[in-house]
Each structure stands twice: as C-alpha cells, then as structure tokens.
Amino acid sequence: MNSTPKRSNALVWNVLKIILALILVGIIISRTDLASLLQTLRTASAFWLSISIVVFLLLTLLKAFQYYVLFRNGLTYFQVLNAVILQNAISNYLAPSAGIASYLTVFRVEHGVKISRSVLIFLLTKIGDLTAIWLALLISSSLIWSRIRTLQIPILILLTGIGLVIVLFFLTVIFRQKFVATLSGILGWLKLSKIRFVENGIRYLQSLADMEQGKVLATFGLLLIYSFVYMAVTIFYTYTNLNVFHLQLDFLSVALVTVLIQLVSYFPVSVLGGLGVTEASALYFWGFLGIPDSVLVPALIGSRLVFYVVNLIPLIYLPVYSAFLNPKEQAQNGQ
Predict the structure, then answer these.
(1) How far apart are CA 141 and CA 297, in angstroms?
(2) Rg of the chain (C-alpha set)
(3) How many angstroms separate the CA atoms of 124 and 72, rounded?
C-alpha cells in the first residue's frame, strides 16, 4: 500500500536532482565561451586520452575484483565483472540508486545471492573505500597544508567525521550485538531512532554484527588493500583527464581535490554520473588553489564529454559475456 507514495517521492526527488544538475551545468558553461571550449576540445592530447581510457578500464577491473574478493562462494570473476559494468553504466547514465538496484537484482536473480548479503558486501566495500579516502585526505592535505589555509578547518571536520564512521564500524565488528544494542538505545533516548536514515543504519550495523568476527576482519584487511589501490588509480585517472586538455597541475593538489570530490559523491544529490555536481565541486575546490575559471572550465566540460564516451567501452563486455562466457560457466556448473 505504501509503494505508490514511495515511488512518487522517488520520482520527485530524481526530478529535483536533474533540475539541480542542469542549473549547475548552466552556471559552469556561463563561466567560459564557445571559442575557448572548442579550442580546448580541438587541441586535446591523444596520448593522454589513450592513457585515460586504459586507467578507466583498470578502475572497472579493480572494482570488480573488490566485490569478487567478498563474494567468492560460487561466483566467478567474470560474473562479478558483468554485474559491476552494468551497475556503473546505469549509475553513470541514470542515477546511483538505479545502479545499486541493478547490482542487487543481478546477484539475486542470476546467481541466487540473498539481497541482505549483497547489501552487506556493498556496504563493506564502501567502508573500505571510505577508509582509503580518509587516508588519502590526511596525506594529501598534510603535504600541502600551508597552501590550503581556507580549507584547513573543513578538512579537519571531514577527517574527524569520517574517522568516527570508521571507528563505529570497528566497534560493531569487535563488540558486535552488544555495541549495536547500546548504540540503538542511545539513539532511541535521543529520539533519533525513528529517522529513516538512522533506522537503516542500525539495521545494517546489526547485519554486520551477525557476521563472524574473524572472517570480517580478515576479509576487510584484504579489501582495504584493494581500496587503497583503487583510490590511488582514481587520483591518477583525474590527473590524466586534466592532462588530456593540457591542464598540468601538481599531483598533490589533484589528489586533494579528487578526494574531496569523491566525498561529495557520497551525498545522494547527483544523477547522470554526477553531472553538474562534480564540475561545480571541482570549480569550488580548485578555486582555493588559485586555478582560474577560464582555464579550468573548458577542461572540466571536456572531461565530462570524455567520461560519457569512455563509459561506453566497458559495455562491449556485456554482450560478449552473455554470448560466450555465461553459457560456458553455466555448462561447467551443471557438470
């Protein structure tokens, strides 16, 4: 009975996000002129573009490997890669929520994985990525601390907030249901337990607490390694994209801005692969490092166009998997 209002609310929210994206795109485009934009696109570096494509494909393979490490039982790497490519495509061309839904559906329908397990694995991966982001933010900001005076307090707040989330995760793993029950009681006393976000958070923590402690810690340790590698490659991907349009910035600044944009992506306000939101965030953060709009905006628009084109490349895998790899795996499983 409640499905209709929920769908209506979701539709309204998605429409608002699209409007926000279009407004931000309009603001960003207004910061440049057509001549500068066309000149930037015409003079794009084919060398750096080829490197950017290779790095993007590597990111897709790494993300699939992260999930594969957690799923293991009965699933091959090719099956996980198929689900990840589909999730990324839907997230980047539609909305992240639709991408997550496709991820859950594929593993449930095609591979019989319980939704609760898929959700838990998704959250473990996000916690691993968040830990890598926290470390990257700590290192990159500390190395250029004197250059980011205006950002120092916000970064300290971010480091503290993310640190608390990570601590919350480990307290749940170590003390399990006892900690979750205590936290739930405190939130109930504060009249916060009925908030949907808090209620979902407690439910996820309970699922995490139910997992075997040793297994979670061992798996998470391995997952962290892949998350750190993934974060490093993501930073390099941003660096190559900027170089495609001859915007050669120092690597530490690129690392810091990339990490901050990654954190913005955690807020559920983006559609179409972060259209508008990513560019506005980049414009805002690079402004603190003294990069002029006239130089930055054409590169950001060019990078957005490259992003949409490059995202089409992994889709070649989907028909290949359906036609050749999936039937072969099904035959092997049937033996």
Answers:
(1) 24
(2) 21
(3) 14
Give the separation between CA 196 and CA 247, rounded to whole angstroms: 43
| Token pair listed for 229 | 């590698």
- Identify the pLDDT of residue 1: 46
CB atoms within 10 A of CB 18: 15
Gap between the Cα atoms of 15 and 285, Å rounded: 26
**204/208 Cα distance (integer angstroms):** 6
- Residue with structure tokens 């690129």? 254
Say if residues 270 and 78 touch (Cβ distance below 8 Å): no
Which of 64, 90, 130, 83 lies closest to 326 in space, CA to CA? 83
Q: Which ranges in 144-191 belong to alpha helices (H)?
A: 152-189
Q: Could you state, in order of their start, the residue ranges of all structural domains in the chain?
A: 44-334
Q: Quote the CA–CA distance of 65 and 123 in Å, as a whole number.
A: 15
Q: Is 188 helix (H, G, I), strand (E, B) or coil?
A: helix
Burial class (CB in 10 A: 0-12, 13-18, 19+), 78: middle
pLDDT at 121: 80
- Here the tokens at position 85 are 């490519």
- The answer, yes or no, to whether residue 199 has pLDDT greater than 80, is no
* Predicted confidence (pLDDT) per residue in 209-256, tens digit: 777 767 777 777 888 889 999 999 999 999 999 999 999 899 999 999
The whole-angstrom distance between residue 40's C-alpha and the CA centroid of its chain comes to 28
What does the CA dihedral 254, 259, 260, 261 come to, rounded to 10 degrees? 90
